[in-house]
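Researcher: Please translate sequence to structure tokens.
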Amino acid sequence: MAATPAGVLNRDLSRLLHSGDQRWGLPSRGDITTETPASLKALVGPAMANGPIEVVIVGDVKPDTAIEAVAATFGALPPRPDAPTPAPPALAVTFPQPGGAPVTLTHRGRADQAVGLIAWPTDDFLSDTQRARTVSVLGAVFQLRLTEQLRKVEGLTYSPSAGAQASDVFPHFGYLSARVEIPPGKLDGFFKDVEAIAADLRDTPIGADEMNRAKGPAIESLAKRRQTNEYWLNALAGAQSDPRRLTAIRTSEAQLQHVSSEDVRKAAQTYLIDAKAWKLVIRPQTFQAARN
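Model: Translation complete:
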């Protein structure tokens, strides 16, 4: 993972975006070698023995058949207590402190490869699904703008990416981000381009054509995914303990359709603030050594 900028990004980004919380980090080699089957059993054993069970069945099956099958298996187990409410510290997740110089990491790969990333804190998904879907459309518009600028105008890269993430577990945690893999000497230009795009999204109404290009694929993708078992398995998971998930399923298409150009501009004004941005660069070690 240390041999390419993408490998370093995959290894470290999630932990960094959660302010170093190791629950989102990969264990060290030492951590791995000290773990044993007994420690795993101690961690998951109590939940397996006494924790609540949720069963999700999707596919070509009649409800009565599913009920009978569950009643004869999981339903035949002794009663179990309700899921305990997680302690507040377990749900406490924070976005890294913004501002200042970018966090800098290095990789051991080619000298002409680097990654630049910028992220802004937003909010979670379930506390306001309409807000979350508006931010997701903002992320899609940002993707269109970034691709236009970096691929078509400047020819720097074929596949820059931008988008939004909103937690459906941790309150008030989410983020918008933009990233690119380009030569290290072009990183400063990337950050300037991103800041210019963010400023324009804050200040200028988005045209109807661009809104359609941002919303259309999301609505079409949702319709296609709803035809698959995988979508329903993922969407229904957790609904027993948090019924808001069912409401989110029922309102998903209508809420996406409802997002307007002005909604997206207000979201940009709320979240795409330069002072709130957190930046990361991943440079080749050879480039770093040359600069030193």
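Researcher: Any highlights?
Model: The chain has one domain: 5-32+88-291.
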